[in-house]
Each structure stands twice: as C-alpha cells, then as structure tokens.
Design brief:
Layout: H1 2-31, H2 47-50, H3 54-89, H4 93-99, E1 101-104, E2 112-118, E3 121-127, H5 130-137, E4 159-163, E5 174-177, E6 181-185, E7 190-193, E8 198-200, E9 212-215, E10 218-221
Antiparallel strand pairs: 1-10, 2-3, 3-4, 5-6, 6-7, 7-8, 9-10
Length: 222
C-alpha cells in the first residue's frame, strides 16, 4: 500500500512538472523572444527615408532653371539696350548727308537770294551788290537793337549767309522786302536790313549766321 502511494505521488509530481514546462513554452512562444532562436520581431524599415527626395530634386532643378532663364533674359535685354543706345548715338547716312550742304555760288546773280535747306532749316544766301555792301556799312552801330558790324556777319562782303528764321517766334521772313531793303517777317512785322540785322519790330536779335566755309564758287554750310 505504501509503495502504491509513493508511486502515485511520483506520477503526480511528474505530471505537474510537465504542465509547468508546457506553460513556460506557451508563454515564451507568444510573448517572448526565444533565446538563440529565430526572432519574430519586425524591425522598422527606414529605406524610404534614406532614398533621395525626388520632389526636392525637382524643386531644386526648377529653381536653377528659373535663375538661368532670368539671367538670360536680363543679358538679352541689356544687350538690346546697349545696341539701341549705340544706334541712337551713331549718326545715320541721311543725318550725315544733311549735316553739310554745298551750294554753287556761280549760279546766283548779283542782287538775288536763294534759299537752301540745311538740317531742316531754311538758309538765305544773298549775292550782294556793292551798293548794298556800302549801305550795310553806313549804319550807325549804336542805333541797333543787336549791335553788330557788317564785317562780323559777312566773311566775304558780297556773300551774306544766314538762317532764315525770325528771331521773334520762328517765322520765315520774306527777302527783298521791308523798310530797310532786306527781309520782312509777315507774322509780326519785324524788319531786317541788308545785313540781316533787326531794325524794326518785335524780334530781339539779328538773323543767325550758321557755320560755313567759302572755297571759290563753292559754299559749304555746316
């Protein structure tokens, strides 16, 4: 009987031990990492974070493109501005052609005027007679509104060259007219003598003398 009881106790103890081991194995399998075995723990994947950001690269490339395009447009605009400036500063052939005008004096009879165009302005050329030269030199300079000797206005006594614009308001005077045998402005009644000096009327100054040269029978204005 005693042996039977001892045998039963040993069997019960063995069964209890087996139940405890099974419980440990079940717990380990579900909730713990087995030592020395394969792990069921999933390591986070950081690969996406390590890859280059394609959107960032695209934005950077767009920025480079915009900066380059702006620089190109600025360079082209600057070049065009410089070209326009140089074109404006450079006189064209037409402008150079009008800068000087040549006149053949051999075709102008004594006592007559001709009018030529120079830089858009009328220029009076008068072939004066000796009588007209003497008359111009006989004037009392002190009596003139704009005192000027005839010799200061005509480099060669027989040739008088003037810009044909009234010094009052810019009208064109009429030749061989007026109270002093020279030019008369019909706009406001200014009278100029045979030397182109203002003698009567509202004009404040004498008719302007342009730059010119005389070479024989050739007059070059400008």
């Amino acid at each position: 009987m005693l042996r039977t009881l001892q045998t039963l106790e040993r069997q019960a103890s063995s069964m209890a031990s087996l139940r405890g081991m099974s419980a440990v194995r079940m717990y380990s399998k579900q909730y713990a990492k087995p030592v020395g075995g394969a792990s069921s723990y999933e390591v986070p994947n950081f690969e996406e974070n390590l890859k280059p950001n394609r959107n960032s690269d695209a934005n950077r490339n767009l920025s480079y493109f915009m900066i380059g395009s702006f620089g190109l447009v600025t360079a082209i605009t600057a070049r065009n501005t410089v070209q326009d400036f140089l074109t404006t500063m450079s006189a064209s052939k037409d402008v150079l052609a009008l800068a000087k005008v040549e006149v053949d004096l051999a075709n102008i009879p004594v006592g007559k005027n001709i009018v030529v165009k120079w830089r858009g302005k009328p220029v009076f050329v008068r072939h004066r007679s000796q009588h007209e030269i003497d008359e111009a030199n006989s004037v009392d300079i002190k009596s003139l509104r704009d005192p000027q000797e005839d010799s200061d206005r005509a480099r060669t006594p027989e040739w008088l060259v003037m810009i044909g614009i009234c010094t009052h308001l810019g009208c064109v005077p009429i030749g061989e007219s007026g109270d002093f045998g020279g030019w008369f402005c019909p706009c406001h009644g200014s009278h100029y003598d045979i030397s182109g000096r203002i003698r009567k009327g509202p004009a404040p100054l004498n008719l302007e003398i342009p730059e010119y040269t005389l070479d024989g029978d050739t007059l070059t204005v400008g």
